[in-house]
Amino acid sequence: MTELSPLPPQLSTPAALHGATAFTTIRTRRGRALLWSEHLARLAGTAKLLGLPDPGLPQPPALGPLPWACCVSH
Questions:
Q1: Quick check: helix, strand or coil at residue 32?
Q2: How many CA atoms lie within 13 A of 60 on its CB side?
Q3: What is the DSSP code (8-state) at residue 26?
């Protein structure tokens, strides 16, 4: 029987071993995330409840151009 070597610590997490994830949505307007700090607090709380690492995102990720932006009047 072949002995398996242990996983590296970064792969011994629920997310890596079992696909555990936290998913939330956030409203955006004109390419900007609205209520970012509230969203991040909600996501961090969900991650903690599931035993996942804190997302640690101080700023919202950059959003790309919206494909329908050319056709929407503001």
A1: strand
A2: 17
A3: -
